[in-house]
């Protein structure tokens, strides 16, 4: 199956007060870390939803429509060359390879798409006529309340995977400065824990 990786990075970051994609974690931007995470998976290509120099980008066809607008633009761009999209947000700094691999493995049994029920992202969604019709209907609606990602996934009958307590830990978003500071603290704790585990016994 030809799966395209997509990093959602085109939001306004209004609650953060600065571009979340440019925040630094371990001397890398969140955008770079997200891209590298997708590149470590067996995906055909990786794209950025948004506009950033030096990246393969998919620009929103219409601004201000949130994740639904980004998905619509990605579907329009990728539908002819790929079978599905593996989508992650740029503002999930603790997301790791193990969680993504688990979702990718589970997706083989859920052809309508799959996501973690308490997070919605990461998300694997098929590129097919069902998605095209649903996105087109939502995109053309004049009612902003109908532009719901959760509503889209229910329409598509995508599978909501129950995350373990450990997986939920890695699915934390950083939408505000307070959440970002919490993630920085947790990342530091994880890094120190890994160092202790890797140290030879004295």
How are the SSEs placed, and which strands pair?
Layout: E1 3-8, E2 24-25, E3 28-29, H1 30-39, E4 45-49, E5 57-58, H2 66-78, E6 84-89, H3 97-106, E7 114-116, E8 123-126, H4 129-139, H5 149-156, E9 159-161, H6 165-170, H7 177-198
Parallel strand pairs: 1-4, 1-6, 4-5, 7-9
Antiparallel strand pairs: 2-3, 6-8, 7-8
List keywords for this structure.
202 residues; alpha/beta; Spore Coat Polysaccharide Biosynthesis Protein SpsA, Chain A; two-stranded antiparallel sheet; 7 helices; globular
Give me the strand/helix succession.
EEEHEEHEHEEHHEHH
- Indicate the CATH class: Alpha Beta
> What is the quaternary state of this protein?
single chain
Q: What is the CATH architecture descriptor? A: Alpha-Beta Complex
The level of helicity is 25-40%
Approximate strand percentage: 15-25%
Distance between the termini: 48 Å
**Low confidence ranges:** none
Question: Could you name the CATH topology?
Answer: Spore Coat Polysaccharide Biosynthesis Protein SpsA, Chain A
Spatial order of the strands in the main sheet? 5-4-1-6-8-7-9
Major beta sheet summary = 7 strands, mixed
Tell how many strands the DSSP assignment holds: 9
Overall shape: it is globular
CATH superfamily: Spore Coat Polysaccharide Biosynthesis Protein SpsA, Chain A
Taking all residues together, what is the mean pLDDT? 91
Q: What integer value in Å does the Rg equal?
A: 17 Å
């Amino acid at each position: 199956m030809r799966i395209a990786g997509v990093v959602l990075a085109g939001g306004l970051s209004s609650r953060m007060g600065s571009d979340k994609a440019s925040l630094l974690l371990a001397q890398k931007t969140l955008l770079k870390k997200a891209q590298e995470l997708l590149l470590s998976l067996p995906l055909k290509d990786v794209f950025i939803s948004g506009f950033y120099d030096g990246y393969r980008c998919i620009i929103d066809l219409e601004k201000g429509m949130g994740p639904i607008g980004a998905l619509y633009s990605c579907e329009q761009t990728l539908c002819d060359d790929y079978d599905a999209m593996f989508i992650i947000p740029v503002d999930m700094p603790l997301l790791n390879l193990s969680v993504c691999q688990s979702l990718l493995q589970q997706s083989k049994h859920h052809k309508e798409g799959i996501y973690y029920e308490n997070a919605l992202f990461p998300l694997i969604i098929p590129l097919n006529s069902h998605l095209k019709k649903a996105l087109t209907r939502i995109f053309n609606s004049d009612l902003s309340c109908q532009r719901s990602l959760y509503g889209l996934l229910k329409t598509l009958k995508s599978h909501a995977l129950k995350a373990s307590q450990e997986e939920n830990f890695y699915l934390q978003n950083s939408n505000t400065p307070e959440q970002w500071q919490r993630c920085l603290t947790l990342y530091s704790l994880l890094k120190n824990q890994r160092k202790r585990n890797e140290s030879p016994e004295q």
